[in-house]
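If it is no trouble, might I ask you for a protein's amino acid sequence along with its backbone structure tokens?
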Amino acid sequence: MTGQTEHEAFESDHLDEFGDEDAQTRSKSKRKRRFAIAGAVIAGLAVCGIALPFTPLMPVKGVVVDGNDVLTPEAVQAQSDIELGTPMGLVKVRRAAENIVQDPWVDVVTVHRDWPSTVRVDLKERVAVAYLQQPDGAHLIDTEGKDFLIAEPPVGAMELVGVDVENKEQMREAVAIAASISSGARAQVAALEANGRYSFVLRLHDNRRVVWGASEDNANKSLAFETVLQREGAEFNISNPELITAR
């Protein structure tokens, strides 16, 4: 009887062990299934997140233009060829930038997506500091001396008179003077006249004259010119900006 009891007890112990192993296996399987389901859900969400910008559910709602002065935001958007409602992921920002930079007024442009629904255009426009009157119209000159457009001169662009367009050095010196003058003061200048080979004179809209002299020390002469604009007199000489003379 004792041997039989011990044998039965032995078998019972093994059955308990086998049962525990089955339970552990089932638990592991459940955990694996839960992890698999969670992984599938995460993967699905990731795929949806990747695909969403390429669907009408994430459209372009606006094109924001910064840095423009001459060009209107509407004109820049039209040049970009970006249509409102286009899925954000399908906006070709490189092509938009290439389109916009074709405008003569545009010097540098950057186009980028501003998620979730805006395209931003950052511009640097050319500044027409001077112009040359030619038979075919007014040639606008920027701060680098580039003849970039034939158009009506904007406020602040001074006419270059007596400047030889074939004389690159003289043109460079004239543009350096024009570019050194602030936009507000430049608006009061009707023309920058070449007075000999190395001397220039500013003729103001009120017929006053300011002798600038050579294209040198332009920053200090520009400050002297600002001072002259506040004074009474018909003619000034700022060729030496530390000793302004008037008559």
